[in-house]
TrEMBL record:
Alphabetical keyword list: Acetylation, Hydrolase
EC number annotated for this UniProt entry: 3.5.1.2
Keyword check for Acetylation: yes
Catalysed reactions, as listed in the record: L-glutamine + H2O = L-glutamate + NH4(+)
Entries under InterPro entries matching the protein: Beta-lactam/transpept-like (IPR012338), Glutaminase (IPR015868)
Descriptive protein name: Glutaminase
Binding site for substrate: S67, N119, E164, N171, Y195, Y247, V265
Quaternary structure and partners: Homotetramer.
Enzyme class (EC, first level): hydrolase
GO MF term list: glutaminase activity
Protein family (similarity comment): Belongs to the glutaminase family.
GO annotation (BP), single: L-glutamine catabolic process
Gene giving rise to this polypeptide: glsA
Pfam family, one: Glutaminase
Length: 311
């Protein structure tokens, strides 16, 4: 279990300023269970390699990972299968399209998604998680998340998983399209079961910031000294966070913020500042591209104040 976070006056000032931007956004409701979130919520935690943590806002609020889980499943699959196998089946290029778009599956490389951060690519990645059953594959992914957070109690939100499973017609369409091209082999309902559980893995901002810290430390948990994932895998994941982590707002994010980050439609953002710390943000009101309105502003203010841009 992780230590409690120290509340920070400096972060509180940034949260206060960014909170006005939550009004510009809207909570996602295409997954019905996510529609219950409070659009005014906004919180942040920063986790340092020495175990210190600072926060502002209501960091105990729980979030499901949604698309943030795509980075974690990618790391696991790169370890399971190696780079050649993975990148034969999913590409490395940003799309400039919304995260759930189907169009380039037909027009660019038939059946092979352009990158692992869009839904089509993430479905292929989840398909590649090794194990004999959905349950075993999910437990492997969950154990990996628990190891990064150093908390064996992390689990998934069954209501959110079920809600997405019952309504994910577009994701099923992506799967069938890809299956036609023989990149996905398994039964689509089985894959949707695994994918919706993956997206519903639940935690608070503090936990999210600890995952960001492990990526920041090139895959090492500095407290146990354990290399949780190889350096190369952490590097590949961070690169995807820069090029594709904020969907079709990734270019603007690189220019205005310059911090490798991954967002999800629950309103979470996981950021990673190499060698320094991990960032976990939660603000469920989303902008038109599906990124947290207040969360993006908060990250922008943080990056400007502490000169965090990579560039
Ligand atoms: N579970 C969501 C979906 O597939 C994840 C998308 C997201 O967070 N952008 O639609």
């Amino acid at each position: 279990m992780n230590m409690a976070c120290q509340s920070s006056d400096e972060l509180e000032v940034l949260v206060k300023e960014a909170r006005t931007y939550t009004k510009n956004g809207k909570v996602a409701d295409y997954i019905p269970a996510l529609g219950k979130a409070n659009p005014n919520d906004l919180s942040i935690a920063i986790y340092y390699p020495d175990g210190r943590c600072i926060s502002a806002g209501d960091i105990e609020e729980k979030i499901t990972l949604q698309s943030i889980s795509k980075v974690i499943s990618l790391a696991l699959v790169l370890m399971d299968r190696g780079q050649d196998y993975v990148f034969d089946r999913v590409g490395m290029e940003p799309t400039g399209d919304p995260f759930n778009s189907i169009i380039k599956l037909e027009t660019i490389a038939p059946g092979k998604p352009l990158n692992p951060m869009i839904n089509a690519g993430a479905l292929v990645v989840t398909h590649m998680i090794k194990g004999n059953s959905v349950e075993e594959r999910f437990q492997r992914l969950l154990s990996f998340v628990r190891e990064m957070i150093n908390d064996p109690t992390i689990t998934y939100n069954e209501e959110v998983a079920r809600s997405e499973f019952e309504t994910a017609y577009l994701n099923r369409a992506l799967c069938y399209f890809i299956k036609q091209h023989n990149i996905i082999e398994e039964d689509v309902e089985q894959l949707m079961d695994l994918y919706t559980k993956q997206c519903a893995i639940e935690m608070n901002c503090l936990d999210l910031s600890r995952i960001g810290m492990v990526f920041a430390m090139d895959g090492v948990d500095p407290q146990s000294g354990k290399q949780i994932m190889p350096v190369d895998v952490a590097r590949i994941c961070k690169t995807f966070m820069v090029t594709c982590g904020m969907y079709n707002a990734s270019g603007e994010h690189a220019i205005k913020i310059g911090v490798p980050a991954k967002s999800g439609v629950s309103g979470g953002i996981m950021g990673t500042v190499s060698g320094k710390y991990g960032i976990g943000i939660f603000g469920p009101a989303l902008d038109e591209k599906g990124n947290s309105s207040g969360g993006i502003k908060l990250l922008e203010l943080l990056s400007a104040k502490y000169k965090l841009s990579l560039f």
